[in-house]
Amino acid sequence: MKRKELIRHLESHGCEFFREGRKHTVYVNRIAQATSSVPRHREINSFLARKICRELKIPQTKQQ
Known about the structure:
Blueprint: H1 3-12, E1 16-20, E2 24-29, E3 34-39, H2 46-56
Antiparallel strand pairs: 1-2, 2-3
């Protein structure tokens, strides 16, 4: 899945940008009090996308 698609999914479920790291971007779900790192690769495999959604306690994307 494309990184932009994953970020769009995260933001549509209430997650917010928190900060930039060197090789990743940190998103936070303030309602669930959870954080997760999104790598800056153009393509993110479905296993990692599923893990990020699970860490942020939001539903998985439709492509998974």
